[in-house]
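Key idea: predict the complex, not the pieces.
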Amino acid sequence: MQKKWVPLFGAAALCAAMTTPQAAKAEQLTLCWAAWDPANALVELSKDFTAKSGIDMKFEFVPWTSYADRFLNELNSRGKLCDLIIGDSQWIGGAAENGHYVKLNDFFAKEGIKMDDFVPATVVGYSEWPKNTPNYWALPAMGDVVGWTYRKDWFERPELQKEFKAKYGWDLAAPKTYDQLKQIAEFFQKRQIDGKTIYGASIYTERGSEGITMGVTNVLYDWGFMYENPKKPYDMQGYVNSPDAIKGLEFYKALYDCCTPPGSSNVYMVESADAFKSGQVAMQMNFAFTWPGLYKDEKVGGDRIGFFANPAEKYHFAQLGGQGISVVAYSDKRDAALQYIKWFAQPDVQAKWWKLGGYSCLKAVVDAPDFKTSQPYAPAFLESMAIVKDFWAEPSYAELLQSMQKRVHDYVIAGKGTAKQALDGLVVDWTEIFKEDGKI
Amino acid sequence: MTTSHHTFADKTAEAAVRATPEPLARRVRSLSDKAIAWLFIAPTIALLLAINIFPLFWAIYLSFTNYRANRPNAEVRNVGLGNYSRVLNDPDIWASMQTTAHFVFWTILLQTVIGFGLAYLIDRKFRGHAFWTTLILIPMMLSPAVVGNFWRFLYEPQIGLFAYAVSFLTGIPTSEIQMLGSVQLAPWAIIIVDTWMWTPYVMLICLAGLRSIPDYIYEAAEVDRASPWRQFWSITVPMALPFIMLAVLFRGIENFKMFDMVNLLTGGGPGSTTEVASIALKRDAFEAWATGRSSAFAIVLFVAVFGLANIYVKALNRVKQR
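Result:
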């Protein structure tokens, strides 16, 4: 009796075997990025792409701490894990020169995707290599920049406003200059609010990856730090270590010494956001991607939180964050990956991206009349994106970054040497790296 | 007829035997002991060659080149001894070696003294000694990742139990006790954690040494009216010494390579205060991507550990022969 069923099951299995490959034919793309809030928004957004194209999206998200290690290893080993990658802005030079990314110029031209439609700073920062040339390796995907959040509810307390005005002679509000920022930080440092000791500001100090560099450059640019002589590439003497840059670095150390919470020697994005969320600090330096999450936070969000762009000093800049989306050259699904980029570049998709918590770089979205009022943090984001500057995007950026991490952490956190020695040492390191690269 | 049948059957059988391959068991039986031994260890040797020896030689090769793993398309040039010269003349690398030596010295000293002390106490076989032994061994059984994160919270100046306990005992405000953020305290923060975690390991080895001392030696010493102090220095310490030295060897090699704990607790900071050789090597190899140079650094470290360990093993053998 049982034997009778065998051919039947066999036929059924054969049918299944014949139909399964059909199902598997529906392509699946793997997108690699960091594990953070915008990535969750992208998962949500990409459902529309799947619905429209029938292509499934798989996501490989890794924590920021291992993001560069993981994906640069993948690219360097010519791995096929990622079809699409949202790679960090500094990777673009290396990825372009080593052939990791597909050059997108022809594709953009064919599909009518114009780089003029995107915020210029994001095109330079996320897409171009060499910089300021029309060679595109990515589509601007996630605009990001270092800015600040503050405890608006504390700033608005009448008794604190009165005390602050009496002490410093100006109204307690979001600072416009670094002197003002430091005064506010000093004012709040170790103050008792609602029975709890609070501190002035949380700033980037992380040693392991890129944290302290992102924080320090965010401040140094405003004092006058420049990566190189604008008229002579890789001529760094007197630019990286200019007297103004030295003053800027001294300021960063002074801010760290006077006004950060105890135990702040290794703070980056997560730790800074945590310090703010736990009601520990009055102000927080952090990338703009954290703002939607903080605004939604029950304890510190809503009316309690305010946002401001990086203060100005002699100049007015902010450290660029964010990334572009690229097609990995080793992917077997290049056409489908390009299809995703084409879909992602559409204005309505970009508008939804912003609504979901991603930061669109499309002018049509950010220049829309209602953009500034669309979210409380939108004005600070717009103001910040207009003043961005980025770290080296050279193929040897990783080595350049390591030198800076070491030099500035040694000075700012460990108190080793002077600001001048730190920046002079940085010029020596960077010169050696560029010499090895054959750039000097 | 019968005869002819047998003859045919025999012939068929013989032909079948000739055609059938020799059974494996018989063929194996015909192998010499040496051949069988090689057969068994060959997979292990192949594996060892593939995952240990080949990478070692590959690293030696890379150490003479300018290769960078993040520039797969770049031309690989032979730089001779350039990488070695750079490594040996790099003040930062020497600083990391000094930091490593500092860690190795203090962790071994503390772990040996405390580990031997605990083993000596446990060896007394007091009531509940088995329970205490198990309790003491717990830190060693935990993963370094768990221990690193656990202690990071303990060291937290604002909410950490460690800062609270020190503050309670000394009166210093907790915000001043920045174990991981202070240049002076951070190296000690790591030494404390490593000692907490690995002293039980030293204790176990020392305990084995103490338990290997025959009772009759102590009984003879009692008869000779040797004081406990004399027994300790003349019997216990010399007889347990090879075991203590073995523990020092194991911990020395391990701590020379110390990575996970430092990485989790301080990441080498503040500044470069706790940047031990393995952290510096990791940065050079996987963050700065100077693959050739970091290979030279790795070879220098390997030679240093190998050389020191060999000298030490010779000393250990001498002690054992005494």
